[in-house]
Amino acid sequence: MFWNAKLECMPQEELRKLQYDELKALINRLYENNQFYRARMESKGVKPEDIKCLEDISKLPFMYKQDLRDCYPTKMFTVPNRDVVRYHVSSGTTGKPTLVGYTQDDLGYWTEALARSLTSAGIGPEDTVQVCYGYGLFTGGLGLHYGVERVGATVLPASTGNSERQIELMMDLGVTAIACTPSYMIHLIDVAKKMGVDFRRDTKLKVAILGAEPWSESMRQKIEEGAGIKTFDIYGTSELAGPMFTECEYHNGIHISADIAYVEVIDPDTEEVLPEGSEGEIVFTMLKKQAFPLVRYRIKDISRVHYEPCPCGRTSPRIERISGRSDDMLIVRGINVFPSQIEYTLLQIPEVGTGYMIYVTREGALDNMTIQVEIKPEAFSDNMEQMLKLRHKIESALKKYLNIAVVVELKAPGELPRFEGKAKRVIDKRVI
Ligand code: DLL
After folding, report:
1. In this predicted model, what pLDDT tens digit does every residue of 259-303 receive, in sequence order?
2. Are 156 and 182 in contact (CB under 8 A)?
3. Candidates 146, 235, 240: which one to mutate for ligand 1, based on the most atoms within 8 Å of Cβ?
4. Nearest-angstrom CA–CA distance, 219 and 224
5. Cα(37)–Cα(382) distance, integer angstroms
6. Does the Cβ of 139 fall within 6 Å of ligand 1?
7. What share of the chain is helix, strand, coil (3-state, %, to 5)?
8. Nearest in space to 402 (alpha carbons), one of 327, 353, 324, 346
């Protein structure tokens, strides 16, 4: 089943022609209207007329997360504020977050991409879909919400948390599909077991749309066997729009709608474009975005791209499951955390010394983050009450800044390891 058979199954030559036309229009528009991007092109000595074929995209400069931060809040926008109808916000590496704006058309293409993805996962008007991604500044909840409505299915905007109630609603409303992080799906399976609920016997659940964090084939197996359902990997980032692209029933990669996005794989060190099938960093150009354009954006996710048409009939390129990142970003309980954010927050607290260590573990299905923090000699004492107060102060500063609860352990001055070479302050013990 296709949502938009014409575009999803268009012969590849035609698709490439369409991509080139979109790219030309995009670059002309940016050169005229976006000071940042024009300056970037000028510094590389590229003009719109140098883009004579699709491959010439490699002449264009890259965009980096740092650029988005430098342009915060709206310097990157290429439309007047009256045309912006929505904002989403994601965490930055330090200091300011990244703000993404959407015009009515931007929301339209985002929803179109999701409608194609949900249809390829077999979801249609007969379905009821429980959306357990966070609603709000995060793109997961609202993104999926509008996609589900677009395909005519019924949406249950459950958002995150309160797992027992989630399972009760799932049973009461005959929910047939769920959208959440893979680790939350595993958690729901555990909670259901404790409640005496058998997904196969007591619910109508048949599909899960899982993403926003790395997961593996062994997690897929655990979920599919644990709940008796089919799972589909969904990929996206807040900069692209939000969750957008999924696998089809053949599960041989995530289809990237070619009329909406152009994907390349590069060597993260040399920035050279790599041939089909090579592992590298994926780079996205969003061909239709208006408010917040993205050209050759270095997302920092590692994957491979394949172009041969899929047995499902779709002709779009496919990326393999994301295998890692080329930077140090962690995803903890579905939330992006940069170690630099933690360091930045700790440095604002006068009692905190220079040493810290970050431990990430997974208990059952849930991620935990413990941060060991060295205290300055003058602030360290054996007064338990004082130390407890300080611990709470650090925990709440981190919670405010990272948006997740962390456990802080205070350490005496000099207690944590010193590094002679590159510091290794993050120990991620999760097995995915
Ligand atoms: O996580 C958007 C999203 C919401 C995707 C719901 C899927 C479902 P950000 O918060 O900007 O956006 O985080 C984007 O999360 O660069 C990847 O590192 C990671 N990520 C997202 N989907 C997957 C996936 C949303 N399917 C960052 N597999 C990305 C592995 C994923 N990693």
Report:
1. 999 999 999 999 999 999 999 999 999 999 999 999 999 999 999
2. no
3. 235
4. 8
5. 56
6. yes
7. 35, 25, 40
8. 346
